[in-house]
Amino acid sequence: MNVAPGKNAVSTIPFDHARVDRLMEEAGIDVLLATSKHNTQYLLGGYKFIFFAAMDAIGHSRYLPVVVYEKGGPEHAAYIGNRMEGAEHQNNPFWTPTLHAACWGTLDAANLAVEHLTKIGKGNARIGIEPAFLPSDAYTLIRKALPDAKLIDATDMLERMRAIKTDAELEKLRIASELITDSMLATVRWAREGTTKTEIIEQLRREETNRGAHFEYCLLTLGASHNRAASPQAWKKGEVMSIDSGGNYHGYIGDLCRMGILGEPDAELEDLLAEVEAVQQAAFSKVRAGTLGGDMISYAEGVLKKSKVAPYTDFFAHGMGLITHEAPFLMTNHPVTYEGTYAEKPLEKNMVLSVETTMLHPTRGFIKLEDTVAVTETGYAMFGDRGRGWNRGGVA
């Protein structure tokens, strides 16, 4: 399917195209070839094809969505997708003036991208690509078909594009966090003595799904263990539970951690969780537009360093949105491998952060809080701000 340009397409662009144009100019990019699910979703205003939501492989190849966007030329934008996406367009038309819903694999998608670039006069332009999300066969085809083009890594530019959330994105992130928090607290109440980790994780999946979230993972510990993988280990009286889950709402991530206890927490457990909370609050106190990201990190780390639990406790913060680790990147290789390029940059309004303090106590187990906050002009707004103390199990 080749849909001709629509007369109202440019007026319905679902992102700040002036800002994207500016970021492209700074990166030396004339035209984008976005091929990751998260960036094509962003550029299409939230759309993601449900048929390939859980997997990409089909036949001998894989699904490869492509959004072509020319700097300063939104009238030349195109979406290249699977043949079945023509029906999606009939029900909810894509904004891109051109649509090719014609592909079953990577090579036909790459061929159509080359054809479109040539048609709009960008066959020898500076083309921004996503190396980590462009299969080698598609890359080789594009490289050979457009020998005079300069292929530029657009990863950083695209991350910067998504760093500042719109009000609509913030609302999806808020809902995702609320749904995940509600689901985790309900699961803690449901679990009883003898309930296994595998059963608890499966119950959480049901809770999130029934609330309208898409379950992605659960990292769970019971008792003194620091192992967060599913297993037949059963919850015992007096033991702690750490329940850390990621799920999404319309593609936007909810990622939080809460603590459970089977029985009543003793004085030591109350004290340990309070130490974790003190570090969290220290980080929150420095979150506001204009504060250097690195200053927030160093202040929280300083509070942790003075704590009696410092030898076995870690602090971490990262950006999140359509994926669990995205701009702003605040820490280098801690623990995910990337550079903390935003440490020396000010936080900006509508950035979203995940803030987490993790204690690997030698005898009491895995004690952690993870929270999601949106940066505001004067501070922050927290999403899913419930259940941050000891939540009792077996009371549902």
- Number of DSSP E strands: 17
| Tally of alpha and pi helices | 10
How large is the share of residues in beta strands? 25-35%
- Mean model confidence by pLDDT: 96
- Indicate the structural class: alpha+beta
What's the gyration radius in Å?
23 Å
Q: What is the topology, as strand order, of the major beta sheet? A: 1-7-6-5-2-8-9
- Assign a percent range to the helix content: 25-40%
- Estimate the global geometry from the Cα principal axes: globular
Low-confidence stretches: 4-8
Largest sheet: 7 strands, mixed
Q: What is the helix/strand order?
A: EHEHEEEEHEHEHEHHHEEEHHEEEEE
N-to-C span: 53 Å
Helix-strand layout with pairing:
Blueprint: E1 2-3, H1 17-27, E2 31-34, H2 37-43, E3 57-58, E4 61-62, E5 66-70, E6 73-82, H3 85-91, E7 98-103, H4 106-119, E8 126-129, H5 136-145, E9 150-153, H6 155-163, H7 167-190, H8 197-210, E10 214-222, E11 240-249, E12 252-261, H9 267-284, H10 293-305, E13 313-319, E14 352-361, E15 365-375, E16 380-383, E17 390-392
Parallel strand pairs: 2-8, 6-7, 8-9, 12-17
Antiparallel strand pairs: 1-7, 2-5, 3-4, 5-6, 10-11, 11-12, 13-14, 14-15, 15-16
Domain Peptidase M24: 171-377
Domain Creatinase N-terminal: 18-164
Protein name: Aminopeptidase P family protein
